[in-house]
Structures are given as structure tokens and as C-alpha cells.
Specification:
Blueprint lengths: L1 H6 L2 H67 L5 H21 L4 H29 L4 H8 L4 H72 L19 H49 L4 E6 L2 E5 L1 H7 L9 H7 L2 H17 L3 E8 L5 E12 L5 E10 L1 H47 L7 H25 L7 E4 H11 L1 H7 L2 E5 L6 E4 L1 H18 L5 E8 L8 E6 L29 H11 L13 H10 L4 E4 L3 H10 L4 E4 L16 H4 L3 H10 L8 H20 L11
Parallel strand pairs: 7-9, 11-12
Antiparallel strand pairs: 1-2, 1-5, 3-4, 4-5, 6-8, 9-10
Helix pairs in contact: 2-3, 2-4, 2-6, 3-4, 4-6, 11-12, 15-16, 17-18
Length: 731
């Protein structure tokens, strides 16, 4: 047999190697098909039983819904309790008919379902009569029906019949499961037995065929084993006449040809290895340089991003996935710059020319990065632009410093002039004040000139204070920083301002936690800032109103800090004056104001690395929405609830709104709009309380009066502005 296979061509050997397994697999497939068919029939019957069980469970649930809905409607007379009753009524008989069809081959189960259907029809008929009686305002019969349990026997009979049906179904299920287990074992034995027999036949046949092929190949392989001395051995010529003999002769000729080229190949391999090493080193060096470059480097193909280094992703505020999405990149560009940048770059792509522009990225947290962007076209051998190499340089700090430098130069010039004038005024003021003081000392109380001298002395002191403020503005004091409690400093300033507060019958309400707010700064300068701001608030606050001072940890930004908010009840500042309130010598109309308080405060905070800002609008819902729509500014920081925040976005879609945190340190809620307890105070609930007295809460009269004050202030605020106050759902 071995010799016969050896004399056969390899093609015929491979044919035999494919035919024998195919025959065994065919036999095994026939046996497996018969077993699987039987198992599949059993599985289909099992699914029918499971489906019958599910229908029975749903049928019984709907019967329970009929009973529950009926009881709820009878006991409460409320129509909404009939919803589950009607829903169950619409479906229960249909499911019963489906269940009858499903068990039509099982006489005992079909008889039970037919009986239950009749009971359910009787059940529904009785309940409909009672429901009509309740709707006709004759509920006593229905309630006696429930209280005396007249329907329990019928419900119990339904449950018993459905229980017997479930028992019969479960018995059929167990029988079918046992048969499936038996059929499964039979199928497994058939597959395993047939598979083992087929495997033995295939292994035996393939072994003989493989032996007739591999044995001469092994002898050939032994003859061509290489060594360090002989990397290309001389292949001997075999006397066999089959394909392997022909292969040996071809290999002999090939080894001879290869030997002549081995030296050139070895030289080329050495050169290639060195080139790969150099290329890998250059790529790693380039990647390191690009990733650590202090500016953004990117490559685009058309309008699609192909490559971006780490710094460019940070500038755009996007992750590696978002920056490859054109829509996400468009959204990252500031809305005021978006259309211009896209149009300019699209034009540059069409023209194939270099492109340079300045624009801003707007991050998700509200951070703005201003960048100088330049893109250079990369062309192929034919001169066609295949991609653009781009560079983004962060000029945010440079732009900020240039702005501050311009302001500082302007203010320094103004300060030098003002300081020179103040210096020239101070000497005469000292003489005038001293002379006036001496004249007052030498003048009798009855002298008619004495009031005039007092006015002169008072105005001289005022001018001296103005001169000192000018000098403070022109020559800022050196910062002497140490750690102190800001809350304690606020209390100290409140005591200093006790006299003007008493004159206005106003109070300052300090909102701060019990724990100290420790900061490191110049205490005297911060005291001056607080005095300036609180004095302005006292002057703006109407008689008898409250000024609120809130201390909270800074919630936005990278670095933590302290945020102080001062809120008064004044009429506010004219929109035309808002851009100038921090400019020196600007006053909004105060007769004795110098216009330097806020300017000095801003200089002090700038020197400490802080900032001062003014809220444009504080007031009612209508006032805030109208301000967002009418004010010329394009960007707003809004401290309010989400409902009003989204309302502003709706009325002014072309503007940017940044949501400010309104929950201070230690707060337990964000706003009334998010409160589930406030949501319970609906008009229907209030009407029920007024009609029945249920759920009424009695509060002290003093508490009620204090609670009504914010509402009165809101209405007065709207009245002064001649605006109608609307709720969130009315605006």
C-alpha cells in the first residue's frame, strides 16, 4: 500500500486526502441532522408550553386588575381608578381566546380555559352593573357587594381553575423536559460515536498519504540543512521521477544561482539595518520635539484634521476624539469668530495659499484662549495641495498683558499729572486749613463769620482727602502681606460704618460660615477696598433696606480663592455708565464723590492678583430676561436658576451666557426651581388647603412678615422700572 501511494502523483494523493474526510463528514452530518431535527421539534413544543404559561400569568394578572380597578372606583368614585379596569377589560377575553387556541390540542387544558372564560364574562357583567350604579350616584349596592364579599366566590373559582390549568401545564412541561434530556443524550452519543469513527478513518487515511509525501521531503530537508560554514548547501539530485524528484533537481539549480548573489544580499541587508536604525531615531526625536513644542502643531487634509500635538489639543480644549470631529472643532471656536475663521480657511483651501489669522477658542468651562494661527500648504510633485501644515500660538497672555500695559500706561500718565497737581495743591491747603483753624479759635461763637469759617475748614479737609486719594492712586503703596481672617475684617469695617448705617436705618447682613476665612494679603489695603465698596452700597441703598455681604470659596477657575459679593437694593447704574465705573475721576452723579474709590480698589486687587466686577442687572425674572435681550454686551455671567438661564438663551440666541455658581460654601440647595418641596406648592394644592384646612401649616406672624418682604421688594423693583412681573411659565 505504501509503495502504491509513493508512485502516485501528489495531486492524486491530495484528492484521496480530501475525499475520505468528505465521506466521513457526510455520514456524520446525516446522523447529526436526524438528531437535531428531533431535538428541534421537542424545543418547539417546549416553547409552546412556556408561551401558554406566560399567557396564563398575564390572564390572571388582568383579572386581578379588573378586581383592583373596580374596588378603587367603588371606594373613591374617582374615574382614574377605572383606567386599569378598562385596560384589563379590553385585553383579558382576547388573551383567553389566544390561550384556548394555544392549548387546543390538550382537551383538559382547553376545557379549563373555556370554563374560566365564562366565569370572567360573568365577573365583568356583574361589575359593569355595579359601576353604572356608582356613576348614577347609587354607590351603596356596590359598596355592600365589596364589604360582604359577594364576588369572592367567583374570584376564588377563577383562581382555582387557573391554578389547575397551571398545574396541568407544569406537568406537561416536566414531561417534555425529560424527553428533551433523553433526546439530547441520544444526539450527543450519536455525534460523539460517529465523530470518533470518522476521526479514526480520517487519521488512518491521512497518515498513509502524509507518510508517502513527508518521508522523501524529510530526506530532502536533511540533505539541505545549512550551517554557519555553508549557508547555501548543494542540494543532491534524487532519482525519483515524481514531483519531489523534480523539486530536488530544481533546488539544486536554484542553490547554485543563489550562492552567486549571497554576498551582495548580505551587504544590502547591512545597509538596510543601519538605515532603519537611523529612521527610528529620527522619528522618535521628531515625535518628542512635536509633542513638547510650546505651541500647537497640526496637519489638515481639506477641512479634516489629520494630526495634532498635545499642546494644540489643550489650546482647543478638546480630547483626541473630539478634535478629529469637524463639528466639535467648529463649536470650540468662539461664536463671534467662528463664521469668519471657517470662511477664511475655506477660501485659503480653494486658492491653495498660506493662511494666517487671529481667533479665540471657547472651552466648555468658559475659558477663552486667543491664538495666532498660520497654515502652510504642502504640495505633491504635480503642484497640487495635498494637505496643510498648521501652527497655533497661544497669545492670550500676550493680549492680556498688552491690554493691561496700555491701561497701565494711560493710568500712569494720568496718575503722574494728578500727583503733580495734588502736590502743588497740598501746600496751599495746609496753609488754608491752619489759618482757618486759628481764625475759628479766635472767633466768638456769636460772630456771623464763624459758620463760613467752619465751611471753609470742612471743605479744606475734604480737598485734603481728595489729594490723599489722588496720591494713593498715582503712587500705590507697597504690599505688606500677612495671614488674617476676612470675615473678622468685614465685621471691623461694619463697625466703622456704624454711623452712616444708622443714618440710613440700614443693616449689613454678613453671610459667612463659622469657620474662619484665612487669606494672605495686605490687611490695611483690603480694609480700604471694603470701606470704598460698602460706602458706595450704603449711599445707593434706599432708607431702611438691607445690604448683603457674602463670602464664599471661588468655584470657577484653576486656582482656589475667595469671592466677596456685595449686594444692595439701589436702583442700579445706567448701562451707559457701566463701562466707565472703574475709570479714575468718573462719578455717576454723587455730589461729593471723587471718582477714585473704585479705581483705587481695582489697583489694589490687581496688585494682589485678584479682580473686581460689577453685576449689570439684579432684579425680577422679567428684568433679567429683558436685560439679557436689550443690553449691548455679547457675553453675560448669570447667577440664577436653570429655568431662567435657559429663558435668557431663548430670547437672545446670538449671545453667550456663562452660568455662575449660586450655592455658597455650606449651602444645601441650588435654587427654588430645583426644590421638590417648592414643586408641591401648586395652586390646586393651595385651593384644597383653603377649602378643607387639610395640610395647613400655621406660622408665626413675625416670620410671615419677614417672608413677605422679598416679594414686596420684587414688586417695588418692577414698579419703579414700570415692568410687569411674570413667572417662569408666563414670560
Amino acid at each position: 500500500m505504501s509503495d502504491l501511494l509513493s508512485n502516485l502523483p501528489i495531486a492524486r494523493k491530495l484528492f484521496l486526502a480530501s475525499v475520505i474526510p468528505a465521506l466521513t463528514v457526510l455520514l456524520l452530518s446525516i446522523l447529526t441532522y436526524r438528531s437535531v431535527t428531533t431535538f428541534s421539534d421537542d424545543e418547539g413544543q417546549l416553547n409552546d408550553i412556556y408561551y401558554s404559561q406566560r399567557l396564563a400569568s398575564e390572564y390572571l394578572r388582568l383579572v386581578v386588575d379588573l378586581e383592583t380597578g373596580f374596588r378603587g372606583f367603588v371606594l373613591t368614585s374617582q374615574e382614574h381608578y377605572l383606567f386599569p379596569y378598562r385596560t384589563a377589560q379590553d385585553h383579558v377575553l382576547n388573551i383567553g381566546r389566544t390561550l384556548e387556541a394555544q392549548v387546543s390540542q390538550q382537551d383538559d387544558q382547553r376545557a379549563l380555559i373555556t370554563s374560566v372564560q365564562q366565569l370572567v364574562k360573568q365577573f365583568i357583567s356583574e361589575k359593569e352593573v355595579l359601576i353604572d350604579a356608582v356613576k348614577a350616584e347609587h354607590p351603596n349596592e356596590a359598596r355592600e357587594y365589596i364589604e360582604e364579599g359577594k364576588g369572592r366566590a367567583l374570584m376564588l373559582k377563577i383562581r382555582q381553575d387557573m391554578g389547575r390549568f397551571e398545574h396541568l401545564t407544569q406537568t406537561a412541561l416536566n414531561t417534555k423536559l425529560a424527553k428533551i434530556a433523553q433526546d439530547r443524550d441520544t444526539m450527543l452519543m450519536t455525534i460523539l460515536g460517529g465523530g470518533l469513527f470518522s476521526l479514526i478513518c480520517m487519521v488512518a487515511a491521512l497518515h498513509l498519504i502524509a507518510h508517502s509525501i513527508t518521508t522523501p521531503l524529510a530526506r530532502l530537508a536533511t540533505a539541505v540543512v545549512t550551517s554557519d560554514r555553508n549557508p547555501i548547501p548543494q542540494v543532491p539530485v534524487m532519482t525519483r521521477t515524481d514531483e519531489i524528484g523534480n523539486l530536488a533537481r530544481v533546488m539544486h539549480a536554484m542553490s547554485t544561482a543563489i550562492h552567486s548573489h549571497i554576498e551582495a544580499l548580505q551587504q544590502s541587508e547591512g545597509n538596510l539595518r543601519q538605515l532603519n536604525q537611523d529612521l527610528a531615531g529620527s522619528e522618535a526625536k521628531y515625535r518628542s520635539i512635536v509633542d513638547h513644542a510650546p505651541f500647537g502643531i497640526f496637519t489638515t487634509k481639506g477641512m479634516t484634521l489629520v494630526f495634532s500635538n498635545r499642546y494644540n489639543s489643550l489650546l482647543a480644549g478638546l480630547n483626541s476624539t473630539e478634535e478629529k470631529d469637524p463639528d466639535a472643532v467648529r463649536r470650540a471656536i468662539h461664536p463671534e469668530d467662528r463664521d469668519r475663521v471657517i470662511a477664511e480657511f475655506a477660501q485659503a483651501v480653494v486658492e491653495g495659499e498660506p493662511y494666517e489669522t487671529v481667533f479665540r477658542f471657547l472651552h466648555a468651562d468658559g475659558t477663552i484662549r486667543k491664538v495666532l494661527s498660520r497654515r502652510i500648504p504642502i504640495r505633491d510633485q504635480s503642484g497640487q495641495v495635498v494637505m496643510y501644515q498648521g501652527f497655533n500660538v497661544d497669545i492670550t497672555a500676550l493680549d492680556f498683558m498688552q491690554t493691561r500695559l496700555r491701561r497701565a500706561e494711560r493710568l500712569a500718565t494720568l496718575g503722574q499729572v494728578a500727583a503733580g497737581i495734588a502736590h502743588e495743591i497740598r501746600n496751599p491747603l495746609v496753609g488754608i486749613g491752619s489759618t482757618t483753624s486759628l481764625l475759628l479759635d479766635d472767633t466768638d461763637a456769636s460772630d456771623p463769620r464763624r459758620p463760613d469759617l467752619a465751611v471753609i475748614l470742612q471743605e479744606t479737609k475734604r480737598l485734603d482727602r481728595i489729594v490723599n486719594q489722588i496720591i494713593d492712586y498715582a503712587r500705590p503703596r507697597e504690599i505688606v502681606a500677612f495671614t488674617f481672617d476676612m470675615a473678622q475684617l468685614v465685621h471691623e469695617v461694619m463697625k466703622v460704618l456704624d454711623e452712616p448705617l444708622t443714618r440710613k436705618q440700614a443693616v449689613i447682613n454678613l453671610s459667612a460660615p463659622a469657620a474662619p476665612y484665612m487669606i494672605q494679603a495686605d490687611r490695611d489695603q483690603f480694609k480700604q477696598v471694603l470701606l470704598n465698596i460698602l460706602q458706595n452700597a450704603i449711599e445707593a441703598t434706599p432708607q431702611g433696606e438691607t445690604i448683603t455681604v457674602a463670602l464664599a470659596e471661588q468655584a470657577r477657575g484653576i486656582e482656589s480663592g475667595l469671592e466677596i459679593t456685595v449686594t444692595d437694593q439701589g436702583s442700579g447704574i445706567s448701562p451707559s455708565h457701566l463701562p466707565h465705573v472703574f475709570e479714575p475721576f468718573f462719578t455717576s452723579g454723587k455730589p461729593r464723590g471723587t471718582g477714585l474709590g473704585l479705581a483705587i480698589s481695582r489697583n489694589i486687587l490687581d496688585a494682589h492678583g485678584g479682580d473686581i466686577a460689577l453685576a449689570d442687572v439684579v432684579g425680577s425674572t422679567t428684568a433679567l430676561v429683558e436685560a439679557a435681550r436689550k443690553l449691548p454686551a455679547k457675553k453675560f455671567i448669570v447667577a440664577t436658576d436653570n429655568g431662567l438661564f435657559h429663558k435668557m438663551q431663548q430670547v437672545a440666541p446670538d449671545k453667550i451666557f456663562l452660568e455662575a455658581p449660586i450655592a455658597g460654601k455650606g449651602a444645601t440647595c441650588v435654587s427654588c426651581a430645583h426644590c421638590p418641596w417648592m414643586a408641591m406648592n401648586r395652586l390646586r394644592t393651595l385651593a384644597r388647603v383653603l377649602e378643607t384646612g387639610a395640610n395647613e401649616i400655621v406660622i408665626d406672624e413675625a416670620v410671615r412678615e419677614r417672608a413677605a418682604q422679598p416679594i414686596r421688594r420684587l414688586l417695588e423693583f418692577a414698579k419703579r422700572r414700570k415692568q410687569v412681573v411674570l413667572g417662569n411659565n408666563d414670560a
